[in-house]
Amino acid sequence: MGKTTNALFQLAEAAGRGDLDHSRTVYEEIQRFHQAVIEGLFPPAGAQALWSYLVERYWNPLWQRAQALVHLSEEVGPATDAVLVYGELVSSEIVRAFLEKEGFPAQWIDARRLLVTDGSYPEPSVLMAPSQAGVDAQLVPLFRTHKLVVTQGYIASDLRRRSVTLGREGSDYSAALFAAMLRAQGLIAWKDVGRLYSADPRKHPDAVPLAQLGYAQAAEITYYGAQVLHPRSLKPLRDAKIPLYVRPYFDPEAEGTLITDRKAENLPPIWTQRRDLVLIEVESQDLQPLALEELLEGLTSEGVEVFFVQGGLFRAAFAVKGPYEAIERWQAGLPPSCTAQLRQ
After folding, report:
1. Mean pLDDT of 316-322
2. Which of these CATH numbers, 3.40.50.2300, 1.10.10.10, 3.40.50.800, 3.40.1160.10, describes 4-167?
3. In the 8-state DSSP scheme, what is residue 126?
């Protein structure tokens, strides 16, 4: 809801550097926002009952977790993830309660009990076998007694049952994983921009809506700049041959984009744009071929995303996105036989 994940990250960051006053301020702002949402959705008695439940189950433990960050005894990434998960947990509880108020009984389940990862940071790999086992044992039975089941995107656990997040656009990825594991007939992704276009319609009024795409076509468009989906969300759907329908939530009757294993023909020219990229120009100093695979693995291990590679034997260029200090760490770790210039 809103920018809760960003606010929770600010809360964790402030607590991690020992600034509990600022952390408390952010914490109270997040609480006020959610309380206002609840008061707008429920009658006074219902709002008070739900708020009291959330305070005991989530808000108090969240503040305890934030205080614990001051005395950090674990890696920063996992400790921050343990704070970020609260946004999804609280919002999904509100959604479940609202559905029930409107006459649609729904069962709620914690996604951390279902999706298991290897715990790597910042984008862990989902372990399919234990995740499928969790879905079969805990999620599938719920659909035998309930038409609606509410869970969360973006959050999961590792093998030690510690909370983790799935990285950028992790909610779409969660939805795709659940659809594949449930062997769903299809997946609908409700978006503010409820379809894919040949260009950003906010900047190009003549952008053409794309009614149908193949998985690979959609992955390429999103990888190179379209912000509607993350390309990794498409892989579980492609592997299971599950169609994805992107729809606009502000206009539920409007047409969207259908993504299947059928390649679209006669597409218009596609224009995409990536912002905040860093260009890295690498050159071998000893006339030995560059070890491109090792260079790219080093960037990935620093949490840097590589969007474009142009490589030769002795020179190469990468277009990347990530924390600039992480890119500089990678640059500093290069062997003397290799130099890299950074351009923003």
Report:
1. 92
2. 3.40.1160.10
3. B
This prediction has a pTM of 0.84
CATH architecture of 278-343: 2-Layer Sandwich (3.30)
Contact criterion met (CB below 8 Å) for 182 and 193: no
Domains of the chain: which residue ranges? 4-167, 278-343
Q: How many CB atoms lie within 10 A of CB 209?
A: 15
Residue 131 CA to residue 143 CA, distance in Å, equals 17
Query: How much is the mean pLDDT over the chain?
Result: 92
* pLDDT over 60 at 73, yes or no: no
Of the candidates 206, 221, 207, 231, the residue with the CA atom closest to the CA atom of residue 274:
221
Distance of CA 17 to the CA centre of its chain: 25
What is the Cα–Cα distance from 148 to 111, expressed in whole angstroms? 15
Strands (E), 114-182: 116-117, 148-150, 155-158, 163-165
Q: Residue range 57-69: average pLDDT?
A: 95
Q: Are 282 and 340 in contact (CB under 8 A)?
A: yes
Q: Rounded CA gap, 331 and 335, in Å?
A: 9
